[in-house]
Amino acid sequence: MCPVSLTVPEAGSSTHHRHDRGEISRHMEPVLLLNTSFEPLRVINWKRALTLVFAGKVEVVEEYTREVHSVSLVVRLPAVVRLLTLIRVRGSGVKFSRQNIYARDNYECQYCGYQPPVSELTYDHIIPRAHGGPTDWTNIVTCCITCNRRKGGKSLEQSGLRLRHSPKKPTWQPYVTTALGMRNPPESWRDYLAWHAGPKSEEAFSSHPPS
Ligand SMILES: [Zn+2]
């Protein structure tokens, strides 16, 4: 429970229907909780985040511009908080699931690069199942409906399609973005989610040469 009574002041009413475009969507004031090691752990709400702040369990590393007021105190809403005591995360692997495939592929068709609404995403077996293609990280990619039809049961060569990235098992935890169904997490989270992708994962890959 929050130790103090806090409210988010807004001009006018309907606080709950207000959206800070691009920053806050769907859920009110989501806060990214990081491990001591800066690894994203989960998304919590701002009340929970402030409770952790006041309890001395976390430090605030990023803030929203919006403030919360109590009788005696004004604080900016935390956007990213970091645990002061390391939590050991169980399990090393990322769960193989459709949602995590989408997250790995940045919700983009891996053949044409189109980013349809999430509800219109599908996935494709690069080597068709009928040709013995496995259902795993390296043979499944996010796909738009058009490319999925074009690919059908054909091999990559037969289909004339090209992969934009060669799929591999991710080393990150995609839980954070998928938890909110967020395609675009708040801007202030970017630096802390960035380690998931890009050069870091290539580094990780090149430090483990294929056997
Ligand atoms: Zn496509």
Describe, in plain words, how this protein is organized in 3D.
This protein has 211 residues and is an alpha+beta fold. It has 2 domains: 1-91 and 173-191, no CATH class; 95-171, DNA Binding (I), subunit A (Orthogonal Bundle), CATH 1.10.30.50. It has 7 helices and 6 strands, in the order ββαββαββααααα. A 4-stranded mixed sheet has the order 2-1-4-3. A two-stranded antiparallel ribbon has the order 5-6. Strand 1 and strand 2 form a beta hairpin.
SS class: alpha+beta
Distance between the termini: 51 Å
Q: How confident overall, as mean pLDDT?
A: 76
> How many strand units?
6
Question: What is the strand and helix layout of this fold?
Answer:
Layout: E1 30-34, E2 40-45, H1 46-54, E3 58-69, E4 74-83, H2 98-104, E5 122-125, E6 140-143, H3 145-151, H4 156-159, H5 175-180, H6 190-193, H7 199-206
Bound molecules: zinc ion (ZN).
Descriptive labels:
single chain, alpha+beta, elongated, 211 residues, 6 strands, 4-stranded mixed beta sheet, DNA Binding (I), subunit A, binds zinc ion, 2 domains, two-stranded antiparallel ribbon
